Amino acid sequence: MIDRRIKFRHIQCFSEIVRHNSLKSAAQHLHLTQPAISKTLKELEEVVGSDLLVRNRGGVSLTKQGEVFLHFAQMSLAALQQGLNGVAQLQKAGKISLLVGALPSVAARLMPEVAQAFSDLAPDVTLHIHDGPYGYLIEELRQGRLDVVIGRMGAPEIMKGIAFTQLYDEHVEFVVRKGHPLLARPDIHRLSDWPVIFPPKASVIRPLVERALVAQGVGEVDTKVESVSGAFGRNYALSNDAVWIISNGVVAKELESGALVRLPFDTSLTKGPVGLMARTDGQLSAAESLFRRVLAEVAERIA
C-alpha cells in the first residue's frame, strides 16, 4: 500500500526540480517560494527514507534511489494526465480527441495526407496536431499531454521510457532557389559565401549536419540563421541567396515543383529513421490504434 504521507505536491515538486535542474527555477514555475519547495523535497525524502537529489554547483543530480523514483513518478504524472484528458473528453459530450506531436518534416510531408485519411475513417475523433522543438514535444509526450509524437529518433538518453516504431528513413537536404549562383559551380566549401539557414542546437538533425560537414572538410559556417521553421525557411530561401539546410520532408513539395533546387552535396551521413514515439506505459485507445494504421499506410506510400 502507498504511504499516505506521500501527496501529489511531493511528486510534482520532485519532478519539476529534476526537469529544471534547479530548486529556484522549479519554485518559480510552481509559484512557490524556494524554502517551501525545499521543505517539500525534504518531506518526500523522509517518507522514502533516502536522499533523492544531491545539490551541486551545476544544479542538482539524482542519486541511485532518485533515478528509480523519478521513473515511476513520471509514469504516475503521465497516467494522471491521461485520466484528466479522459474526463475532459467525457465532459465534451462524448467527443474523442487524439493529441499528436509532429516534427517539421513530418508536419509538412506526412500529416496532411494522414489527417485526411484519418478523418475519413474516424469522423467523430478530433485530431489535435502540435508542432514545436524536438525536446518540447518529447517532454509533452512524457508528461501525458500528447498521445504520440512523430519524427526522428532522438539520442538514447532522450528516448528513455519512449517506444519507437520506425516508418521510413529520411536525410537532410541543402537547397537553394532556382537560379542560385552556387548551382553554376557547386562546392560545399563555398557555403559561407552566402547566408545559411542552419538547424539550431536543440534540433535532432544538428549533430548529423555537423558530422556531414566535418566529413567533407568544412569547418564552422560563418553566416547563418538558425531555424527549422518551414514557413520561415521557404520565404527566406526563395527571396534571396540563402542556402537552406533542412530535412527532406520539409521541402519535398518544393523540390518536386522546382521552386527549390537540391545542391549535389553528399548528405548520406544525415540519413536516419523517422517513426512514431509513444510512452511505454501508455494504454492504446481505439482512436490511437486506428491512427497508427493510417499513419503506417501513408508512410509506406510516401517512402
From TrEMBL:
This is LysR family transcriptional regulator, pca operon transcriptional activator. It comes from Shimia sagamensis. Residues 6-63 form the HTH lysR-type domain. Belongs to the LysR transcriptional regulatory family. The keyword Transcription regulation applies. Signal peptide: none annotated. It comes from the Bacteria. The keyword DNA-binding applies. Keywords: DNA-binding, Transcription, Transcription regulation.
